[in-house]
Model the fold of this input.
Amino acid sequence: MMGTYNPADVLHALPEVFLSVVAIVVLILSFAAPKQRGWIETVSIIGVVGTGILLVRAAVPLFEPGAAAVSVFSGSYLVDKFAIFFKVVFLLATLLVILMSIDYLPLVGAPIGEFYAILLFSTVGMMFIASGGNLLTLYIGLETMSISLYILCGFLKQEKKSNEAALKYLLMGAFSSGVILYGISLLYGLTGALGFKEIAATIATMDLGNPALLVAMVMLTAGFGFKIAAVPFHMYVPDVYEGAPTTVTAFLAVASEAAGVAALLRVFLGAMPHIQVDWTIMFWILSVLTMTIGNVVAMAQQNIKRMLAYSSIAHIGYILIGFVAGAKLGISAVLFYVLVYAFMTAGAFAMVILLRTETVKGDLIEDFAGLGQAKPIAAAAMLVFLLSLTGIPPTAGFVGKFYIFGAAIKAGYVWLALIAVINTAISLFYYMRVAMVMYMREPPKALVVSPSRPLHVAVAFAVLGTLIIGIYPGPFLEFAQASILGLLQ
Amino acid sequence: MSGTTFPVLSIVTFLPLLGGIVLLFIRREQAGLIRMVSLLVTGVTLLITLALPLSFDFGSAEMQFVERASWIPAIGVSYIMGMDGISLWLVCLTALISPIAVLCSWEAITEQVKEYHVFLLLIHTGMMGVFLALDFFLFYVFWEVVLVPMYFLIGIWGAPARRLYAAIKFFLYTLFGSVVMLLGILAVYFYAGAQTGTYTFDVLELMKVSYPWSPSLFSFQNLVWLAFFLSFAIKVPMFPFHTWLPDAHTEAPTAGSVILAAVLLKMGTYGFVRFSLPMFPEATLYFVPFMVTLSVIAIIYGAMVCLVQRDMKRLVAFSSVSHMGFIMLGMFALNMQGLQGSILQMVNHGLSTGALFLIVGLIYDRIHSRMIADMGGLSSVMPIYATLFAITMFSSIGLPGLNGFIGEFLILLGAFKVSWICTVTHERNKELLDLNLREAMTLIPLVIMFFWIGLYPAPFLKAMEPSVQKVVARLDQARKVVEAPTPIPVVSNWDQGHREEQP
Done:
């Protein structure tokens, strides 16, 4: 490790530091003031918003003309637009998840205090992933996030499925972390470096056909494949998504997927751009498998959480198209899609939570029956998410797909785009099945939805995000385009 | 013609949407008010739209009433609306059909009236936008916006037995076609962008570029043409992509069938004239035999299937397949008469098939059957009805003096190679209470139009002439390339008119 330690560097990591402190405060509150409900949630929200403000403060100088990315702690921590972009997504997701959880957790009988603290710790882990300048920072971020997520999955202690989800996720997660670590150690052994830049520089001078290098690449692909739930590393996803408390599922589907994508981009584009030819082929295959299997299996689901689980797998497949297409267009398409995906998927899960009441579990597609007549506004919100997930204008999902397909066509991956098109048609079938159940069936006698105000705010926020990005995507596209400049050489 | 003018096209496009938003704030119990607002909005839109042909410059081939605004500069998307002789009558047709659709749902739709009218108005906006958009991104947005409300119209208010099946089939077919077209649009965008240096979805700009063509099926222009073809052909629908149509038509509520037949199908044929023909002329010429074959099959097959239908709606649906085959045949004659006839016939088919579905709907409201066998002896009980029915049917068949004749006459004139097609068959028979004023009002405007176009088609043809001329000129230019013994690679800019001469 070269470079020197400069105490002022800490200031650059202020958002993470602040959020960690808030998380600890929340943890203390949970046993110091267990009776005062509302404090914990309020402090958590203030923490996330405050972190957002600090983030904006850190971002402003980066967007000045001619500003360069900041690299601190001997290059292990980066403050660039790429990191900012993903951190915005993480914070958005965390905020939405907190809003969804406020009334949901007491309803399902989950302990409240630790929940928020662990959630925030997980977010801190994600933020470190986005800022990771070397493999170790990235790995530590990944583990901070994952270990928190294992706990969150098992939060419904009384429920078998929740326990099963936690255990399954833990086992698969630990295994995949091991695989990633193996890949990291191979890379370190080959290049003698941990920083992405240094690794890339060394690989450039190496024999690119070196088998150890390829093994390292395959290991990292498999490991991150688990984290982002790409087929064939997706087996745990439906069970975990179904068993975990729904707010945690939303967090997994949105934030943790986004973090996986951030890690993937950092490692593959940062450290291994010289063997892009090799990993592009691998991800081409992964992309096709992921979207096709995700969509086809989703058609058969009766449980909406499982359906959304497969749907999120399918969307990872679309995201990988952008990754395969590469170049400025492809990678900015990935970023943009991650943002779009966050809004619409979080929204869809929020709707599942909305249906969870004292009497109805709300996680079957059947539970949506007659929502269109009984609760027209709620049904309209769900319709927006479903249309966006299918990719129909004027929603964000359309612009996302448009941009991804554009990148594929530009890079000459016409077949990949065609397969994605066929997949879009398949996905229409199961998304519209939910719409059909909502609008074309009679509601049960007393259809009630959750009266939770914060949850309504979360849904409204997600709807607005989905529609605004769909109708006026310009600024968001520009943000995504600007965010990748430092990443690509 | 560009510059900042009064945004009349945006108004006729978005006024229905605005009306739909207003409807959201009306309590659902006030069904009567909802219907009135809906009628008012579509009526006002019609009145404004009728002002368009009055101020339209009949001598110009250029886009008129053009509006431009920046939308997504990051990827070269702008908001561009414009109208020429090709879209003029289709826009008027759309505006005319919408209030009729509202009127014919007056008593037929009693459940979820609010949602129904919101969807109806949304479709209206989408259809107007499709005919007016001059930016591919914008066009695609409108193109897809139509699908969702139509899906619900069929799925919620359709005939109970098979509506879900019909709705999803309609949606799946059209969506699949659309997304393939999207890939085509993107390919054109990137190719033209690389050629000219500015990436834009502006249709008029993209039309100035020549896309590489060679007689191979896999040349760029041919592939892109096929991508567009798939989307448009499903929409038209051309044989063999037509199977969604009888299902959708049969299960949809009357207004849904009327809109589908009158306007939605025209989106496909319009797409061919507006984009495929002038943008990819070499490929268009290359595919003429293919298109003519499919059209002729559709004409004969549609007519033959009609003969064995017992369900009135299915019959009209299959007759649509046949009629749309005629339209496509005329179009791919690729000369003045063929194209003009084809565009006029789009309007005619919209009027007469729309009217036919109204007629079937009226009788369905009374006897709750669509079976032809159940309609014996209607003319003695319902004289007005029977008269209108007869006129409409003759119009649809193509009797001289009515609109259908002019269009089909022109098409046959244009399609000199394939002059042996003339079979379009319909049956008749009926019974009950005659039409009330509201019901008659849905049909009378259409019947007036039959006679007008039938007896004095000149203004309709005149308005489209310059625009069609432009398309034909473009095609004639391409013909030189395609028919050259060794095809000349397409390179230069057609608008400037000078092509590199090769021996």
